[in-house]
Amino acid sequence: MSQKSFSKRAVEADALRLRHRANRGSKHYNLGNGHQVTFSIRRACREDANFVLELFTLPHVREFTHGPKSIEVFVNALERGDRELLIIDRGGRPFGHLVIAVLDGWLMEIRVIAFEEQRTGAGRFSMEWLLHRAFEDLGLHRIFLEVVESNTGAQALYERVGFLREGCYRDGYRADDGTFHNLIPYGILSPQDSRASNC
Q: Does position 24 have pLDDT exceeding 70, yes or no?
């Protein structure tokens, strides 16, 4: 990717204007040049396996998270049912991947959030969708996730939508190259249930 194309996308991302559609599951993003991008979220299926495997080969994804190593592993995760595998579509084609789990009927863990490109509005859309899913649709109490300390862009996104940093796990993440990195836990409580509890 050229520096010029990266800069153009960054400028476009800064100019994003969000409009809600009647359907809460998708949103239009105006790029300020007469073009719109529509994001939506759906359940993953077997046909998404190749996309997901290729997604986790991208440097900006591979650096911060682990993905399935084969189509068989992906399909097994779909069939196990202990987590929900989701696809973020952009303009009707796969663009990103989410993995979430609901634990004990009160806690959502966000295990994976990854996109083909950064600074497109997909992260903000996905986090807002997850907040609504957890607190409005499912009536959960808390959402939890962990992020590699050097992934400052993701941390800024989580904090913008209301997550709080909750500590640091020293060398809590082992990358594919064998190196260890600090892992930062983030959490957010339901607005309906939040109490003044600090720790």
A: no
pLDDT exceeds cutoff 60 at 102: yes
- CATH number of the domain enclosing 88: 3.40.630.30
Assess if residue 71 is contained within a domain.
yes
The secondary structure of 154-194 as a DSSP string is HHHHHHHTT-EE---EEEEEE-TTS-EEEEEEEEEE-TTT-
Q: Positive or negative, the Cα torsion across 138, 51, 66, 153?
A: negative
Domain that holds residue 42: 3-189
Alpha carbon separation from 169 to 60, 76, 172, 186 (Å, rounded): 22, 29, 5, 11
- For 139, the 3-state DSSP assignment is coil
Reported pTM: 0.81
| 3-class state of residue 52 by DSSP | helix
Q: Which residue type is seen at 122?
A: A
